[in-house]
Write a structure and sequence with these properties.
The complex is a heterodimer of chains A (949) and B (184).
Chain A lengths: L11 H14 L4 H11 L4 H20 L7 H9 L8 E2 L2 E10 L2 E8 L4 E8 L6 H15 L9 E6 L5 E6 L4 E2 H7 L4 H20 L12 E3 L5 E3 L34 H5 L5 H17 L11 H10 L5 H4 L4 E3 L7 E3 L1 H6 L5 H8 L2 H9 L11 H12 L11 H11 L6 H23 L3 H19 L2 H4 L4 H24 L3 H19 L5 H21 L4 H13 L9 H21 L4 H20 L3 H25 L3 H22 L2 H21 L4 H20 L3 H21 L9 H14 L3 H21 L4 H20 L3 H21 L4 H18 L16 H7 L11 H22 L5 H16 L7 H4 L1
Antiparallel strand pairs in A: 1-2, 2-3, 3-4, 4-6, 5-6, 7-8, 8-9, 10-11
Helix pairs in contact in A: 1-3, 7-9, 7-15, 9-14, 14-15, 17-18, 17-20, 18-20, 20-21, 21-22, 21-23, 22-23, 23-24, 24-25, 25-26, 26-27, 27-28, 27-29, 28-29, 29-30, 30-31, 31-32, 31-33, 32-33, 33-34, 33-35, 34-35, 35-37, 37-38
Chain B lengths: L3 H9 L3 H27 L6 H12 L7 H31 L22 H14 L1 H12 L4 H8 L3 H21 L1
Helix pairs in contact in B: 1-2, 1-4, 2-3, 2-4, 3-4, 4-6, 5-6, 5-8, 6-8, 7-8
Chain lengths: 949, 184
């Protein structure tokens, strides 16, 4: 029929005329009708013909009884036989029996012919197959197909019945509902939590793939006889709400087979947007029930208005309290029974009083955090929820408490709103408004073409948001919060886009955007969770792309990039994961390079991935393996050098060659202690870059390359003890950085003048020229102070100041100018505190401050600054121990030592806190020991209990 | 979520989600209706389908909240669902027959003969879709009458119009459809 031409559109006025004529003609005889037409259609032959034809057709239709009967009986017959009987063949499957029915479909146990494989076959019921439902069914089926997790019942196949109804074949799971399983096995609280965390892991996996379950409840979580939970019905709750065999769903309305509201979040019951956090609420209800036997609320037979009121307003009682109540139990699939404190405790292998005690505190807090009314105040991810349970099991303090960090940050932003510049606020407001408006337009899909166009607009907007904007906003306390909010908005865009598309090119763009937003978040540790979630989305999309196109190099690189970003300022949190990710990055780049041997970029990426992996191995104390990877890094860099030495003709490639030498030398000197080779390579790097610069004095990159290479050469020579060689190199670096500053006064990377001056001062001191050294040092301090003054709103400037003054103070101590050293230390301390105020929890700031206090303590105690002077590398730490025997006589009593003690105490406090938060690496731990020993030796007191708090 | 009355009200206000929640309920009731209808048909009773649908409606909603507008929505949904069930079935049959070179599908394939004339159900469905584009009331009346089995008086009640209007519109629609179908 579709091949036929569309009939011409009907003109409403004409249709109206036709209706009027028809009404008047009805009941008239043929002749009168003829007359009527003559009268009414004067001058309009077409209308007359049409009316006449219509009347004639009506006459014949009447005579022949067209549509005279009705089809109700026929329809009824079809409906009545709408049962797929055992033995029916659907696709490759033979129906065994119906196992569940409800909502919009039915579920059958079926066998794949010839394979003896049992499957659960879900078919939309006849009559439920509206276009919208079918479209969504197919869409969800595609999403489900991307889920591959051992704790999620897998989608195996999909197709159409001969009646044209779509069906899906799922893994058939035989087992008990999770609540039944736990009660029957009388699992203790710990075992229940362990099982529950497996469920969390599966849900988290789905969330990473942007799939929300929407209907988490015991009947959707079956536990197999060997104790593995399997989640059913992922993301299709909206389409099908079948119930597993033998279970019935709570009926909210007599005769109506609606979804039970007992596990639904307030936003679901209100009909608001359902997100991953809604699943967290449902998981909270499930955990509540697993722990104390009751549900937070039981809605059976209550009218919807009342349900809404309860779920939005009433706070559930804590599980520990609920465990002691007596109520009629309504677990799915059970016959009614009475839940008493005794029966509840018994099925958990406990006594009522002990169960209550077991649940009080942490577990109450954890469950109630998941059950918060406001989605934003719940756990922000399932991992976080699950991790808190793990913390509880390991006896660590849990995150759950009345006010979350996010809540506090929100309050802080509110309090400081006036400080945010008007223009920025307006921008945020505009974007937020736009986001909602544009997005709603997209999802409404009223006009497909327009929606697609807007989709493009949103995409552009999202891209603009995640790239570029942050460079224009100076880094400061307030701007970081604005940055965080813009990142929040960007994430909303991206999430929406990600849900809407399957286009690989767009998905790649989205991955890049998620990485970029993750990077923006992670520049401030307060948004750690968000950074992680953004990165894990990037990771998930990249992985999805790779399952579709396993050889897509771009997707591989994106995956590596996403994985690499996890180790931002919070990388140390999970060193095991960090190692796993870094190793995967190595494998990815090895794979890419194998496909395209000696590709410059591939060599660069691979070498960096080796070095990165090595650095993390080093942090966890696996020094030998670390060295192995650094060797691989240097070998790879050498391959790049060889290729570039042979092929580099353009100045761009020459600069690349120079910088490859610099990287190579860095690994050699700092990680393999091959100073001679490193120095040779750096000389070559300087030579190449200088040559390029001589050929093209306007070249910015060659100027930068020569400045860097010379400074690196100086550092390596200093390490090797060649101070006159170092002095020469640093002077060269200084010369080129002055040149670049005169040309590009605002280019940030070139402002290394004060660094070179400080290095020159140190070399001069070592060479026995104290006056010249002091001149260089004063000049360095002066330049840095001026720069900081001109950029005092920029946090990075204060960080730079702290670093330089710390180094200068240590040098002054060695020069035995203790008063000046103390002043410089204080200046460094002030700058460091300022940075810390902007990034309250950033690891490096806190680590720097602790080291600073430790050193200041040594100075005050008259020890001189010996400890970390040369311990710039981790494996040199034992060396610094020898320098500073904590039992030194200088640490005994006296007025000065009171001050030293105060500094040691501060260092100890920071490092103790650090350890408690699980940030410490090997050096931090040794520093803590050191600070502790010194504190004790100087007569201070330090409680072991502080460590465990 | 919510009870059926609330869902019907929401659906009446254009809420798609309410329709999603309603359809399964209507379907399940239709199944009950269908069974009893066939049973009484065999027993040679002459109970109108409407009576059954009405009973179903009463079973679904809270008695005190019975409201004729909601009832009309319910009848409308039931008729529309019947239509989809029949049309899809016919489509499936046609797809099956295509392989055998049989283009036209008549109601014979769904085992009914209407007054000795066979009817192309799919063409009728198309015609109704077209009619709906410029005259919703007419297409709805045909749906209620032909697929829902309602009488003129019942349709008048459901569509909140007079029986005379329903008669006239029905007659027009029938003529127009006949003309459209035979012109093809």
């Amino acid at each position: 029929m579709s091949e036929k031409l569309e009939p011409p559109p009907v003109d409403p006025a004409r249709w109206q005329q036709l209706n009027e004529i028809f009404a008047a003609a009805l009941g008239l005889g043929p002749e009168q009708q003829h007359k009527l037409l003559e009268q009414r259609c004067v001058g309009d032959q077409a209308l007359r013909d049409e009316a006449a034809a219509l009347l004639a057709a009506t006459h014949v239709a009447n005579r022949d009884g067209f549509l005279g009967a009705d089809l109700f009986a026929e329809g009824a017959r079809l409906v009545a036989i709408d049962e797929v009987t055992p033995g029916t063949i659907i696709g490759e499957y033979r129906i065994v029996r119906e196992v569940g029915r409800g909502g919009m479909g039915a579920v059958y146990l079926a066998i794949r012919e010839g394979f003896h494989q049992q499957v659960a076959l879900k078919i939309i019921k006849r009559g439920m197959d509206t276009d919208q439902i079918i479209r969504r069914f197919i869409q969800e089926r595609d999403v489900l197909a991307s889920l591959n997790h051992s704790n999620i019942a897998r989608l195996l196949d999909g197709g159409h019945t001969t009646d044209g109804l779509p069906f899906i074949a799922m893994e058939y799971v035989e087992g008990q509902t999770i609540t039944e399983f736990c009660d029957q096995k009388r699992l203790a609280i710990e075992d229940r939590i362990v099982l529950f965390r497996k469920v969390c892991k599966a849900v988290a996996y789905a969330h990473h793939n942007l799939v929300v379950h929407r209907d988490i409840k015991p009947s959707n979580i079956l536990v197999t006889p060997d104790g593995e939970p399997k989640l059913l019905d992922f993301g299709i709750a909206k389409l099908l709400s079948p119930t597993a065999s033998g279970n019935t769903v709570d009926l909210t309305v007599a005769g109506a087979n609606l979804m039970t509201p007992d596990y639904a979040s307030p936003e679901q019951i209100r009909g608001d947007r359902v997100t991953t956090v809604s699943d967290i609420y449902s998981l909270g209800v499930l955990l509540y029930e697993l722990l104390c036997g009751h549900r937070p609320f039981q809605f059976k037979n209550r009218p919807s208005a009342e349900i809404l009121k309860i779920v939005s307003e009433q706070e559930p009682s804590a599980p520990s309290t609920a465990a002691l109540t007596k109520a009629e139990a309504l677990p799915e699939g059970h016959t009614k029974r009475i839940l008493s404190p005794e029966t509840v405790a018994a099925s958990r292998n406990e006594q009522p009083a002990r169960l209550r005690k077991r649940l009080r505190g942490d577990l109450d807090n954890i469950v109630l955090t998941a059950l918060r009314k406001d989605p934003q105040r719940r756990y922000s991810s399932v991992e976080q929820f699950s991790e808190d349970l793990q913390r509880h099991l390991s006896g660590l303090p849990v995150v759950a408490r009345p006010a979350t960090l996010g809540y506090q940050v929100g309050k802080f932003v509110q309090r400081n709103r006036t400080a945010v510049s008007f223009a920025t606020l307006a921008l945020v407001a505009l974007l937020a408004g736009l986001s909602i408006a544009v997005w709603q337009a997209v999802v409404a899909r009223q006009e497909r073409a327009r929606a697609e166009q807007r989709f493009e607009e949103v995409r552009k907007l999202a891209n603009t948001l995640v790239s570029g904007w942050d460079k224009d906003i100076p880094e400061s306390l307030v701007s970081n919060q604005v940055r965080g909010r813009i990142a929040d908005i960007s994430i909303q865009y991206l999430d929406n886009l990600a849900r809407e598309t399957n286009d690989p090119a767009l998905l790649k763009e989205l991955t890049r955007a998620y990485i970029s937003v993750g990077h923006n978040y992670s520049s401030q540790l307060i948004y750690e969770e968000k950074a992680r979630s953004s990165l894990s989305k990037a990771e998930a999309i990249a992985r999805r792309l790779l399952t579709q196109a396993p050889n897509d190099v771009e997707a591989k690189r994106l995956l590596a990039e996403a994985l690499g970003q996890y180790d931002g300022p919070f990388g140390e949190l999970e060193r095991i994961d960090s190692l796993r990710r870094r190793l995967e990055i190595v494998k990815i780049h090895e794979g890419i390079l194998a496909e395209n041997v000696d590709d410059l970029r591939g060599l660069f990426d691979l070498a960096n991935s080796y070095a990165h992996y090595g650095s993390i191995l080093k942090r966890v104390g696996r020094f030998e393996e670390a060295e192995g990877f650094y060797r691989r890094a240097t070998e790879t860099r050498k391959r790049r050098v060889v290729k570039l030495e042979r092929t580099a003709t353009t100045s761009e490639d020459q600069v690349k060659l120079s910088s490859t030498y610099v990287y190579l030398a860095g690994d050699q000197a700092y990680h393999l202690r091959e100073y001679q080779a490193a120095a040779d390579n750096l000389r070559r790097a300087v030579q190449i870059a200088e040559q390029v610069f001589a050929n093209d004095p306007e070249g910015k990159s060659s100027l930068f390359a020569v400045t860097t290479a010379a400074a690196e050469l100086g550092s390596v020579l200093k390490r090797a003890g060649d101070f006159s060689g170092a002095l020469e190199a640093f002077r060269k670096s200084l010369k080129f950085s002055r040149l670049s500053i005169s040309r590009w006064p605002n280019a940030y990377n070139f402002r290394k003048e004060y660094d070179s001056l400080m290095e020159i001062a140190e070399s001069l001191h070592e060479l026995g020229q104290p006056r010249a050294a002091m001149e260089a040092l004063s000049e360095s301090f002066e330049l840095r102070r001026k720069l900081t003054e001109s950029e005092k709103d920029i946090l990075r400037a204060h960080g730079g100041q702290a670093y330089l003054f710390f180094g200068g103070a240590k040098l002054l101590t060695r020069m035995n100018r203790l008063d000046e050293a103390l002043v410089a230390f204080r200046e460094a301390e002030q700058s460091q505190l300022r940075v810390l105020a902007g990034y309250p929890s950033q690891i490096n700031n806190r680590r720097n401050l602790a080291t600073l206090y430790l050193t200041l303590g040594d100075l005050a105690a008259g020890l001189g600054v010996c400890s970390f002077q040369r311990a710039r590398d981790y494996d040199l730490i034992s060396e610094s121990y020898q320098y500073c025997p904590p039992e030194s006589k200088n640490l005994q009593g006296g007025r000065v030592n009171a001050q030293a003690r105060a500094y040691y105490q501060k260092a100890t406090d920071i490092l103790t806190q650090f350890k408690a938060e699980n940030f410490s690496d090997l050096v931090d731990l040794k520093n803590l020991d050191l600070a502790h020993a010194k504190l004790q030796a100087s007569g201070g007191s330090w409680q072991l209990s502080q460590l465990t708090r | 979520m919510g009870d059926v009355t609330q869902l019907l009200v929401s659906y009446g206000q254009g809420d798609r989600a309410a329709l999603d929640a309603l359809l399964p309920l209507v379907y399940d009731e239709l199944r009950v209706i269908a069974r009893s209808y066939l049973k009484q048909e065999r027993a040679d009773h002459t109970l109108q389908p409407t009576g059954l649908v009405h009973e179903a409606y009463l079973r679904l909603v809270n008695q005190r909240q019975v409201d004729w507008r909601n009832r009309a929505q319910f009848f409308g949904l039931a008729a529309n669902m019947m239509r989809r069930i029949l049309v899809n079935h016919a489509e499936a049959k046609r797809a099956e027959k295509r392989g055998r070179g049989n283009e036209k599908v008549s109601l014979e394939d769904v085992t009914v003969v209407v007054d000795e004339n066979t009817l192309d159900l799919l063409a009728l469905d198309q015609g109704l879709h077209r009619l709906e584009e410029f005259d919703k009331l007419k297409s709805r009346i045909v749906e209620l009458k032909y697929f829902g089995g309602l009488t003129i008086a019942e349709i008048a009640e459901v569509t909140n119009t007079s029986t005379a209007t329903v008669e006239r519109e029905w007659s027009f629609a029938r003529g127009w459809l006949y003309k459209t179908l035979t012109e093809q």
